[in-house]
Structures are given as C-alpha cells and as structure tokens.
Amino acid sequence: MGSKSPEQDGHRGHDAQSCSTKGNNAGGEPRGAHLSRDGDCSLGDEDGDDDDDEGAATAGVENHVCDGTDKATAQLTSEGASKKKKRKKSKKKSSALKQSSPPRIPLSDLFPNGQYPTGEFQNYPVVENTARTTDEENRYLSRQDLYDETFFNNYRKGAEIHRQVRHWTQETARPGSSLTDIAVGIDDGVRALLDNAGLEPGSALKSGLGFPTGLSLNNCVAHWTPNPGQKEVILDRSDVMKVDFGVHINGWIVDSAFTMSFDPTYDNLLAAVKDATNTGIKNAGVDIRISDVSAAIQEAMESYEVDIGGKTFPVKAVRNITGHNIKAYQIHAGKSVPFIKTKDQTKMEEGEVFAIETFGSTGRGMVHDGPGVYGYGKSYSAPSKISSSLASARSLYKTINDNFGTIVFCRRYLERLGVQRYLAGMNDLVNKGVVEMYEPLIDTPGSYSAQFEHTIFLGETRKEVISRGNDY
Questions:
Q1: How far apart are CA 241 and CA 317, in angstroms?
Q2: How many of the other CB atoms lie within 10 Å of CB of 50?
Q3: Which positions, given as ranges, span the membrane (predicted)?
C-alpha cells in the first residue's frame, strides 16, 4: 500500500474519469497473467517408498511358503503384513493435506508443527565509511524485545497466507471477472487461512486484512477497491490490474503487491517495475541511505520503454508515491522510500521492517486524487473517545476502535460487520480529524501503470524478503 508524498496531499484532481475507466484496446490476444505461477501451495513431496518396502515384505512371505516352511505360520505373517500395509496407507492419506481452491483451509492445519516457511535471505551490499550513531543504536535496542522467534514466525505465517491467496488470484482472475468477486475472494481467503472471520469485537485486531484489497486498473495507479453502491467493474483483456493486499498478525502487516495483464503489449511495463522493486530490495540494508536506494530504483525503472498502439512511451517512476517502513498497526511508520533520486540523508536501520514497492507509469508519473473513496483510517494520535452531537458518529467510532484500531478499512468491511447508515457519522469523524479518508490515486487518462512490492526485514547480518514467492 503506497504512501502519497506529503506535499501532494492538498492537491485534489477534478478529472471526471473513473479509476476503473479502461484505456484503448491495444490489440493482441489474451494469454493470461504474465506471471510465473506460484508453487507455494504444494506442501511437500509424497514418498512412495513405503509401498515398495511393503511389496518386498509380502514377497518375502511368499518365498518363505514356497521353501516349505509351516503354512499356518506363513499365513498369519501374511495377514499381519497386509494389516500393517493398510494402516500405512491410511497414515499416508492423512498427510497429503493441500490447500483448497478457493483457499479455505486454515494455515495452522497445513503446518501442524506451527513453523512457517522463511522468505528469501539476502546479504547486505558492502557499505564503506558508515557507522551507527548513538541515537540509531538506542532506537535499535528499543526494538529488540519485539523481534523474537514468535514475531518472525507470525510474520512468516502472514507471508505464506499472502503467497497462497495470491497464487489462487493469479490462477482465477480473468477477463470477464467482476472486481468485487476478485476482492471478496481475496478477503475471504485471507480470513479463512488465518482461521479468523473477524466478526467478533477485537478479533480483527488480532489478525486480518492489513488494509482494503486494492484492484487498481490502468491509469488508476493505486488505492481503488470495489465498495457498496458503486457500479460493478468487469475486468477486460486490455486492462492492467494492480493487486495490492495485506495480511496482519498482531498488527504487523505483510504488505505485498503484483500486477496482472492479459496482453503482451504491457510486458515491458511489468518487467520495468518488477526490476525496479528487486533493485530496491537488493540495495536496501542497514546504514544505507534511502536516497541511494531511490536512485537505484529510478535508474532501473527508467531504462525501459513500452510500445502501445504504435507509439513508444518511456516508463516513468511515479514521483509522489513512496515505499515505507512498517510498525505494529502502522502501515506507514514515518520513513519513506521514493522511486526517484533525492537529497534525503535518512538511513535504514537494523531491526526495521520496510515495504519496498515501486510504481511505474506511461503517463506523467504524477498522481492526484481521483473520484470516489478507497478507505478510512483512524489517526494514530486520535483519542480513545470523542464527543459528537451525532449518535451515529459516536457509535461508528466505537466500532472502529473495536474492530480496526489504526488499521485502514473500507466501506465493504464496515457493512460486513452489519453497520448501516454510517456516512453522516463518518463525515463527522473525518471533519474532526480523528479519521482520515483515502481517495484513489490516478495518472493521465489513457496511461497505464504497474506495481510490485515486497516486505523485508533488516536483520543484523542479512535481510529477509519475507513475502518472496516463486511468482515474484
């Protein structure tokens, strides 16, 4: 989930085009999502050696009978081997549990030992003439009580849920699908694998969606989700769709995104953004200046161009959205990772979690607020209680505290809880400044954009790309 640059917050676009508006069909035959398919849903290989051993044991009994040994004893031995064989088959069958489609089997059932797969470990780039300052050391020490094995295992569990749900999305989201069906399928998959429906007060604060599932098309760069009352949007073969969703456990969010297209016209656009994200991950590390990471991202991104409808467009790094660090229940925790070179000397520090994401566009490379509402988020500094003349505002604020806290949510999630007639109360909370409203972010009409994103943890000697999968 990208963070918009602060200097752009006051700019509101008046473009009448919806974020779901389609660009001109650039031609070409649909060929599915141009992503390598994720194999993470297969949980281990089946071993057929037991059958061979059992066959050998039975053959041994038969040979023993042929040699003239007591037939009654041999028969008992044969029956015993047969019963043992049946028991082994039953045991083997129970160990073959795999994820369903759509994904509905809780991850704890697939990993009964409670240990979840690690992400990709990468060594740090060599950094010369750098040393951690006293203030950085103090901040590092204050974080260490959080990063124990339970913390890592929970983060890896969230990442495995993300991999399995996105694998299903990549296999099933096709032209002709409604964006509501895709978004609800992702939401339901995450909740099912967490084994937490999130309907009881406080339950969604323990685990759930990290933010509203984003399905942004074409020139809508980010922050669009289907909500009640909107006209249904159907995915077209000419669309470029950014899929951005998060999984949280105890407030720590796995923030990861990818892009799907069904026309090879946009292959270079997707390749540019994927390369930029991987370049950002490669260059990130302890004591690394964020400006150096940003410069490397921009160089990788803008080395690509894409041909659309006979015209060549350079791929531009979007200038006013950024990656970000993550803290518990805080998706944007203060540090930003732009996609363009800056003079900011802020450094990444040991023990920090970052969402390394990049957006590339064939348009201006600048976003502004589009029509509609993506979601809402309670301000991190908001009080626990508010005074309001509207009973609906007071009731809604309690619902937000009980179910979301500072986790960003959307109208779809409110109505799933049975909340009704909330718009007046929500407007009051937004006007009071205790809840922030997020709009879709759009670029030039007719342009196309792509996004790839991973969550990484900066350890003492190496970094872990927590959300890495076989797909990207």
A1: 17
A2: 13
A3: none
Determine the Cα–Cα distance for residues 301 and 280; give it in Å rounded to an integer: 10
DSSP 110-156: H-TTS-----EEEEPPP--S----HHHHHHHHHHTTT-SHHHHHHHH
Q: Is 324 annotated as a binding residue?
A: yes
Residue 6 DSSP class: G
Q: How many CA atoms lie within 13 A of 357 on its CB side?
A: 36
Tokens matching residue 84: 């043992």
222 and 262 assigned to the same domain: yes
248 annotated ligand binder? no
| 54 assigned to a ligand binding site | no
Give the ranges where 411-463 is alpha helix by DSSP (H). 411-416, 423-432
Q: Are residues 434 and 446 in the same domain?
A: no
Query: Reduced to 3 DSSP states, what percent helix, strand and coil does the chain have, rounded to the nearest 5?
Result: 35, 20, 45
How far does Cα 305 stand from its chain's mean position?
27
For 266-312, how does the pLDDT look when each residue is reduced to its tens digit (9 = 90+)?
999 999 999 999 999 999 999 999 999 999 999 999 999 999 999 99
Matching residue, tokens 């996609």: 339
**Distance (Å, whole) CA 81 – CA 41:** 35
Question: Residue 80 and residue 319: Cα distance in Å, rounded?
Answer: 73
Strands 435-438 and 353-361: unpaired
Quick one: 320 and 452 in the same domain?
yes
Annotation-wise, does 67 bind a ligand?
Answer: no
- The amino acid present at 90, given as its one-letter code, is S
Range of the domain at 384: 375-438
Dig out the tokens for 174 from the structure: 């096709």
Displacement of CA 49 from its chain's centroid (Å) = 38
> How is residue 349 written in tokens?
């520090």
pTM, to two decimals = 0.80
**Annotated binding residue at 415?**
no
- Strands 321-326 and 336-337, sheet pairing: antiparallel
Mean pLDDT value across the chain: 84
Burial of 62 by CB count in 10 Å (0-12 exposed, 13-18 middle, 19+ buried)? Answer: exposed
71 domain-assigned:
no
Residue 385 maps to a domain? yes
Are the C-beta atoms of 37 and 166 separated by less than 8 Å?
Answer: no
CA distance 378 to 436: 6
Tell me the sheet residues that pair with 313. 306
